[in-house]
Specification:
It is a single chain. The protein is α+β, with helices and mostly antiparallel strands. The protein folds into 3 domains: 32 residues, no CATH class; 194 residues, ATP-grasp fold, B domain (D-amino Acid Aminotransferase, Chain A, domain 1), CATH 3.30.470; 143 residues, Carbamoyl-phosphate synthetase, large subunit oligomerisation domain (Carbamoyl Phosphate Synthetase, Chain A, domain 4), CATH 1.10.1030. Helix content is 36%, strand content 16%. Helix 6 packs across helix 8, helix 7 crosses helix 9 and helix 8 packs across helix 9. The radius of gyration is 22 Å and the shape is globular. The two termini are 40 Å apart.
Length: 380
């Protein structure tokens, strides 16, 4: 995705990008657009039928601001930093886009950018098909977008298609309800290409992705980072070149401003070193809400380092509910993973399994699928 595109910071880059775009374009045409670098990015997965029934399957928010291809961004579903008013405006705009483009039936993906300074909202892209984001939305909600789109194409309407997860108790015209947080983290392989600069842009560079589900953003993020199979145990420490030379703050600011694959880990490292959330936001434009959640993870780490593992079930369960693995807790306290696991079992802190049923337990769901969490067993 994004072949031939780019962001120009000066006249020379502008000429290079336009030339590359013209070379890559089969019609030798390029679009020159306003820069929306640093704006917040959102996606809406929409399904429409021949009777003009429309539903929003899922809203998706990119943690990385505009300037990074959505396939290379860490994303969360549902969107977590939208006000209800903004969501409703975005929802209405998505449906209007489908009608204007002429998508008679099936799924589409509409992408928006929002200026964090004044709330200005623009449509940046629309894919009138089942896309990579549709696959994420399907997994995140349990709503089979591709299957429903195929039935709509042969003449069904949304209210005529049964929701298999609820055993037909609800039709496909019911919008999925999400009572959990899904985080997608892309996987990169820059180490296989020594000459390639590990910087992200509007051209997609990831080679895969992991997806994790939890009751909170912190839990699903740390689960997703572990699932990348890159040796991470969560929001781990990361080495930053140039630190310790007497100008740490400027080194951190420069590193945060670069769109690198490990920028979220760099945010965590900046928080550990005492950089304020406001300074981090100014450097990287990641929404303050996400920075605050990362700060909570870092504060919990600090507490565990200083005081060790708690000896009661409630406090240990709280750490596990924040997404900390036994291995991560062991490394923070200088213990073996087996010792942490033994303590956890002794205190009877074990995962419980929750359903993804498209309806937040409003209806029975004979074919739901499950995700693990560390809530108290009867917390809902």
């Amino acid at each position: 995705g994004g072949t031939g595109g780019g962001i120009a910071y000066d006249r020379e880059e502008y000429i290079d990008i336009v030339q590359n775009g013209l070379d890559a374009s089969p019609t030798t045409e390029v679009l020159i657009e306003e820069s929306v670098l640093g704006w917040k990015e959102y996606e809406m997965e929409v399904v429409r039928d021949k009777a003009d029934n429309c539903i929003i399957v899922c809203s998706i928010e990119n943690i990385d601001p505009m300037g990074v291809h959505t396939g290379d961004s860490i994303t969360v579903a549902p969107a977590l930093t939208l006000t209800d008013k903004e969501y409703q405006i975005m929802r209405d705009a998505s449906l209007a886009v489908l009608r204007e483009i002429g998508v008679e039936t099936g799924g589409s993906n509409v992408q928006f950018a929002v200026n964090p300074a004044n709330g200005r909202m623009i449509v940046i892209e629309m894919n009138p098909r089942v896309s990579r984001s549709s696959a994420l939305a399907s997994k995140a909600t349990g709503f089979p977008i591709a299957r429903v789109a195929a039935k709509l194409a042969v003449g069904y309407t949304l209210d005529e298609i049964e929701n298999d997860i609820t055993g037909g108790a609800t039709p496909a015209s019911f919008e999925p309800t999400i009572d959990y947080v899904v985080t997608k983290v892309p996987r990169f392989a820059f180490e296989k290409f020594p000459g390639a600069e590990p910087l992200l842009s509007t051209s997609m560079k990831s080679v895969g992705e992991s997806m994790a589900i939890g009751r909170t953003f912190a839990e699903s993020l740390q689960k997703a980072l572990r699932s990348l199979e890159t040796g991470l145990n969560g929001l781990d420490e990361v080495e930053i070149e140039g630190l310790g030379m007497g100008d740490d703050w400027n080194v951190l600011r420069a590193r945060l401003s670069k769109q690198t694959p490990d920028r979220l880990l760099v945010v965590g490292q900046a928080l550990r070193m005492g950089m304020s959330s406001e300074e981090i936001f100014e450097a990287c434009k990641i929404d303050p809400w996400f920075i605050a959640r990362l700060k909570e993870i870092v504060d919990l780490e600090d507490k565990v380092r200083k005081h060790g593992l708690p000896g009661n079930a409630a406090s240990l369960r709280m750490l596990k509910a924040a997404g900390f693995s036994d291995m991560r807790l062991a490394s923070l306290t200088g213990q073996q993973e087996s010792e942490v696991r033994a303590l956890r079992h002794r205190l009877d802190v074990r995962p419980v399994f929750k359903r993804i049923d498209t309806c937040a337990a409003e209806f029975a769901s004979p074919t739901a699928y499950m995700y693990s969490s560390y809530e108290a067993p009867f917390a809902g």
